[in-house]
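RECORD TYPE: inverse folding
INPUT: structure tokens
STRUCTURE:
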């Protein structure tokens, strides 16, 4: 039997209200300052990485191209959620329109799917560079690079569009108060007057398949990489390979560990873990990797560190001359 009709015009013109982090209202000022600082670091760091990679021809290699795309995705994800979070914590402006809420949700989920695909691509890049160095340029050609990036984006769009469609077509005829600091899927789904289980189950299955498959292939890549590294006769070559891989492993740990904890706590620990801890975990999962990615790559990757230093010295020199 068909469910009761509802007024779609009223639904799409509705306004949701984000409460921020329930139970931590007394800390909102410090949260606003912390988020603003992390957002500034994420924007400046990722913009710097994109700039040096784009203007320096010696960095136009597959690894740095993937890193450039990753930096762009980090900026998109951060800009999708952090300004609104800061607005909630600093000024109490918690309202967000129906369309803005689902647009934010779509960008967060799609960017997450793109990011995990890029981490897999970067692991494959390191596998080819270390295990098949003589075939590196033949395997990772510009055409292959373009195909990989397009495939990653297409996979994200293909999997996240049905989720947004299913959730946005549910009736929201009751409370419009979202117990979260951004339009997180589970928090919004709980407000629907109809059963949100199909969209919630789709979200869990898709995220588990995407992240699970990517993590399995990444783990396999690094097992082969480590085996090849420890077979190298030169200690310097071993250290260089491990240093490069260490940057990727650090970023992956920052990305996957909080993400997996956040997702499964939301599903399995709702009655055990306090709500403010669940929301805080989800927020940190989005913010921490975006902030530390450029720091990790800037510090641990010698080529990028040197180019950034040169760029900073160039800008400082010209600013001194102009003044």
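DESIGNED SEQUENCE:
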């Amino acid at each position: 039997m068909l469910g009761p009709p509802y007024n779609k015009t009223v639904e799409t013109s509705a306004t949701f209200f984000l409460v921020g982090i329930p139970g931590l209202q007394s800390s909102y000022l410090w949260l606003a300052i912390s988020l603003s600082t992390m957002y500034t670091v994420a924007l400046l760091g990722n913009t710097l990485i994109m700039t040096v990679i784009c203007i320096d021809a010696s960095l136009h290699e597959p690894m740095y191209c993937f890193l450039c795309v990753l930096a762009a995705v980090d900026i998109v994800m951060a800009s999708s959620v952090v300004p609104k979070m800061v607005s909630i914590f600093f000024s109490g402006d918690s309202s967000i329109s129906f369309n803005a809420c689902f647009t934010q949700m779509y960008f967060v989920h799609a960017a997450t799917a793109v990011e995990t695909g890029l981490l897999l691509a970067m692991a494959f890049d390191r596998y080819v560079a270390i295990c098949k160095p003589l075939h590196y340029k033949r395997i990772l050609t510009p055409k292959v690079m373009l195909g990989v990036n397009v495939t990653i984006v297409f996979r994200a769009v293909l999997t996240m569009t049905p989720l947004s469609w299913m959730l946005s077509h549910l009736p929201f005829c009751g409370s419009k108060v979202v117990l979260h600091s951004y339009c997180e899927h589970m928090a919004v789904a709980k407000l629907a007057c109809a059963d949100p289980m199909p969209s919630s189950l789709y979200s869990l299955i898709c995220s588990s398949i995407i992240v699970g498959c990517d993590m399995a292939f990444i783990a396999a890549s690094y097992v082969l990489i480590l085996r090849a590294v420890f077979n190298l006769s030169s200690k310097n070559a071993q250290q260089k390979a491990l240093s490069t891989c260490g940057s990727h492993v650090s970023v992956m740990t920052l990305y996957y560990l909080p993400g997996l904890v956040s997702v499964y706590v939301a599903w399995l620990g709702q009655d055990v873990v306090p709500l403010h801890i669940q929301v805080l975990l989800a927020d940190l999962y989005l913010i921490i990797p975006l902030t530390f990615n450029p720091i990790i790559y800037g510090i641990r990757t010698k080529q990028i560190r040197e180019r950034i230093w040169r760029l900073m010295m160039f800008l400082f020199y010209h600013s001194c001359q102009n003044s």
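NOTES: Residues 98-131 form the longest helix (34 residues).
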